[in-house]
Amino acid sequence: MARRGRDWDDGGWGRYVPVAERRDRAEREAAKRAKKGEALDPVVITGRTIARTFWGRAWCDNLERYSDFANRLPRGRTYARNGSVIDLKVLPGEVTALVMGSTMYRVRVVVQPVAPARWRALCDDCGGAVDSLLELLQGRLSKAVMERVCRQGTGLFPASADIRLSCSCPDGARMCKHVAAVLYGIGARLDERPELLFRLREVDEQELVAGAGRAFDPSLPAADSRLDAGDDLAALFGVELADPVDFEAPAPPLAPKAAPRPAPRERAAKRTPPAEEAAAPPPPTRARRSRRAPPAPAAATDAPEASAGLPKGTRVRMLGGVHAGRRGMITWRKDRGGDRFTYAVRVSVDGRSATTQVSSTSQGRMWEILPS
What we know:
Elements: H1 19-35, H2 54-63, H3 73-81, E1 85-91, E2 94-100, E3 104-111, H4 116-125, H5 133-137, H6 143-149, E4 163-167, H7 177-192, H8 195-200, H9 206-210, H10 230-237, H11 275-279, E5 315-318, E6 327-337, E7 340-349, E8 352-359, E9 367-369
Antiparallel strand pairs: 1-2, 2-3, 3-4, 5-6, 5-9, 6-7, 7-8
Helix pairs in contact: 2-7, 3-7
């Protein structure tokens, strides 16, 4: 018979602590450690959604593939949401954390680094498809690259066998609820700092970007364009992406609307004018001012051609990226200042039209102008 004050006496577990009390304990413990000079980095989750970006959602999606953890993950989600993880630090190859339960527990998650051969294969397969480090960390990648990075067994995310878990609580299971809370906390932390995933797996994210000069692996599924099929990506990886940006020419600014005219006053009944008034000439009328906006000043004709960018209809050939070797036509441009432009290029992919974007600074390396 279990003794009072214990839920499971044979396991030596403490009494159940309600969420409000546990949250209060966590805040008091964090304040006490902060006074001692400890730098804590708590996991703070607003609402019920743990991760909102591609990297955070992809981490949580990969975590839920582990069938041997399925019965522990729901409690871990609850602990992560209610602020029980008062400190979480992502280091090369490991994660350390403090989790408040019936008392304070220390959690350690050790993740094996990506094997060099596996990382080289990943960089080779994605070579030429990652244009910049900013696009990589923001998850603005083609469907083919996303599928390759998230591929189970050969992608960037660890398998269950690649992870070693430990917790100071008395639970003898491989994954307790405190460890599960930390694993979900990692997904929330990747929302804020996605570069920590590469740090955890002990690889350099710059090498994926440096592979932009290599040819893209043709065995991977072709992508029509970047982020043109957000619904398909959500179904493929179980992640929610922002609505794709419509890459069309910006609408011209609207002319200011004229102020509404006041309602005309009700006219009095016409009277028959006397003969003298009828013979008098009508008073002169003032010319009405035009409400049209003044015409825009004519563009300067003596400006150098380079500062105006390439005109629409310029035919180009792609030298790198997923559309390497294809010909296309510039359909839109945007002035970035300092004689730098971003161009929209429409190319044909298997009989379908796709749009990609290039920078004027990458001319000669990623694309070139075809002779007219």
